Amino acid sequence: MGERRGGRGHEGSTVGLEKYWASDPMDVLRVRQDFLLADLDPHGKPGFEGGKTEGRKSLEIGAEILADLQEQLFAGHQMGDDPRRVLLVLQAMDTAGKGGIVKHVMSAVDPQGVQLATFKKPTKEELAHDFLWRIRKEVPEPGMIGVFDRSHYEDVLIARVRELAPPEEIERRYDAINEFEAELAASGTVIIKVMLHISMDEQRERLLKRLDRRDKHWKFNPGDIDERMLAPKYRESYQLVFDRTTTPYAPWYVIPADRKWYARLAVQHLLIDALESMKLDWPLADYDIEEQKARLATG
């Protein structure tokens, strides 16, 4: 694994383990008071001065760093009963690259230390319960990195745009989400909420590529175009989500997604930063090492 160097804090700090960033992009990507989605360029690459080739090389370097830190998180619970875990929430319009994040970022770590949950249209059983019922069942275990490919935010995004629930119910859900995430944070969960921000032009190109390639037809749904026509309403809905649910314990990050390589690199950075902030280390052996060496020498 890559050499471990000094850790770092969060706000306003310089980038530590990842030497390829020109500046830490988190101040730009993190949603703060008065944040406006319309102000963020979906084709930007905050904090990174190189192009696609440099980005891919950096992703490989970061993969080593991430794998090292993830293994320490996993080992800390296996041997030391460390209760901490990470939850990465991915939200986006169609084609923005959630699947690519899972494939190209999370594939770098040991799969036994990752819990992936993909939330589709609720089943009849799920609809019979509160909207957070199915979410709670997928919360990552201690020592794990959990990934939500879509999440509880579908219940305030789609529900608002498609008018699937009355306004007063949507309002209740914002508060319920904040309480739920506060509960997770208090139990040792580091929450990273990511919205991948793609432009309309880039989305059109990606949808056309799916139609032009036989091996991508399975990924296309005519309903994607229907959702695309509602993009202005979705942007309004996302803005409300940011206004109502970005908190110190569960911050939102909006990542420009027109460049797939940059979005992957930025999400990888958020994960590395979160794990670094835990000040992880390898757990101490609960057995006599020299004794075990002697046993092997005579065995």
From TrEMBL:
InterPro entries: P-loop_NTPase (IPR027417), PPK2-rel_1 (IPR022300), PPK2-related (IPR022488). Residues 66-279 form the Polyphosphate kinase-2-related domain. GO terms for biological process: polyphosphate metabolic process. The keyword Transferase applies. This is Polyphosphate kinase 2 family protein. Keywords: Kinase, Transferase. SUPFAM superfamilies: P-loop containing nucleoside triphosphate hydrolases. Pfam families: PPK2. One of its GO terms (molecular function) is phosphotransferase activity, phosphate group as acceptor.
